[in-house]
Amino acid sequence: MEPDKKDIPINGNPAEDDEVIESNISKRLSALEGDVPDGSVVIEDSPKTFKEKIANFFFHYKWPVIVIGVFVIIMAVCIVQLATRKKADILVMYAGPAVLTPEQINAVEASFDTIAAEPGKSHSTSLLDLTVYTEQQIEDLKKKSAEDGEPVAVNSIAIYNSRQRFSAEITVGDTCIVLVSPEMYKSVHDAGGFMKLSEITDSLPEGVQAYDDSAVILSSTNFGKKFAGLKDLPEDTLLCMRRLKTMSVFTGVQKAQDSHAFHLEIFKKILNY
Q1: pTM of full prediction above 0.70
Q2: Residue 212, Cα to own-chain centre: how many angstroms?
Q3: What distance in Å separates the CA atoms of residue 30 and residue 26, rounded to the nearest whole number?
Q4: Are residues 136 and 159 in the same domain?
Q5: Measured between alpha carbons, how far is residue 171 from residues 22, 39, 191 in Å?
Q6: Considering only CA atoms, which of 202, 190, 245, 196 is closest in space to residue 216?
């Protein structure tokens, strides 16, 4: 029977084998303790100083550190921007067939900022832009595109969502000043959702054209004629003032009343601009 390899004597003598093993252990311990024979080269794997430890850590984890660092910087910038961004206090809604670009939206907001400006105090406007077509407008759009040989895709779901958002904003939203197409205007007017012009002013300035008892035609006002963005809206766009929202009892009556009164003053400034 062959003996197991681990039982094979090193020198053939168990006593000498023990001495060899102990000698090897001593040499290893001496090397670890720095007692190294002359001429030997010892490679130290572990960094000793703080600087070496940092360099070693960065060597092994360079890319994770870079990625985390970039992420932290981006988050810090976003937090600072959110913290310093001025909250909009003028809330305006557009609902109609115009498709506004970001630049046009910014221009419309800037026009309201200008009209509402007070000495030593500035305001910030937020425009809720809802692109909405009636069924007839969709059919006219398809017909025109067919005549021009340019097919058009109508996103029915987006239009439906815009209609729902418009209804919700009129009922429970914070928007007070409304720029709207005649088609979207009618249902809200019939339900008494807009203030009558007689409740806002005794008479309209010269040249300002009333659409009916509750709206004026935006393009007939100096405000609508002068400012960029507003001039890009359809000529039949109406300007109207929503009544105090019916659900304000649940969101704070006084706050809603103050906001409505503030927007009403801006509406008067627009008419008399």
Answers
A1: no
A2: 37
A3: 6
A4: yes
A5: 92, 91, 11
A6: 196
Q: Which of 236, 237, 240, 229 is nearest to 263 (CA)?
A: 240
Stretch 237-245: mean pLDDT: 92
Residue 68 lies in a domain: yes
> What band does 22 get if pLDDT is binned at 50, 70 and 90?
low
Classify the phi-psi angles of 148: left when phi > 0, otherwise alpha if psi is within -120 to 50, otherwise beta: alpha
pLDDT tens, residue by residue, 180-210: 999 999 999 999 999 999 999 999 999 999 9
User: In degrees, to the nearest 5, what angle opens at C-alpha 112 toward C-alphas 207 and 266?
Assistant: 70
Shared domain for 59 and 119, answered yes or no, is no
Number of domains in the chain: 2
Task: Check: CB of residue 124 under 8 Å from CB of residue 86.
Answer: yes
Question: pLDDT digit string (tens) for 34-71?
Answer: 555 555 555 555 666 767 767 777 677 777 777 787 77
Q: Does 250 lie in the same domain as 125?
A: yes
Question: In the prediction, which pLDDT does 73 show?
Answer: 77
Give CA separation, 174 vs 46, 62, 114, 151, 246, in Å: 65, 50, 21, 38, 11
Range of the domain at 72: 49-85
CA angle 238-241-245, nearest 5°?
135
DSSP of 54-106: HHHHHHHSHHHHHHHHHHHHHHHHHHHHHHHSPPP-EEEEEEES----HHHHH
Between 9 and 118, the more confident residue is 118
User: Looking at the domain assignment, is residue 10 inside a domain?
Assistant: no
- Percentage of the chain beyond pLDDT 90 is 43
**pLDDT attached to residue 103:** 94
